Amino acid sequence: MVSVLSGVVIALFVLFFFLKEGNGMWRAVVAVGPAAHRDRLEAAGRQGWETLSRYVRGVVVIAVSDAVLTAVALRTDEASREPDPES
What mean pLDDT, rounded, does the chain reach? Predict the structure, then answer.
């Protein structure tokens, strides 16, 4: 239990700093790369980020639609059942 809690705390800590300072960290990574390839590295990183963002958005849309359709199906199934005469 302690390891799970510490993992959650670390994940939230890292998430905060990635969201707050993500561009600065990326600029530092690009600056370390060879000067001749910095433009390509920057373009590749931006394209990778865009691809990842679109993938995550797609997964969220599918998850939400799946949850809504499952809830509707369960409600429909529950409403279509006849009450038990013995209860």
Answer: 89
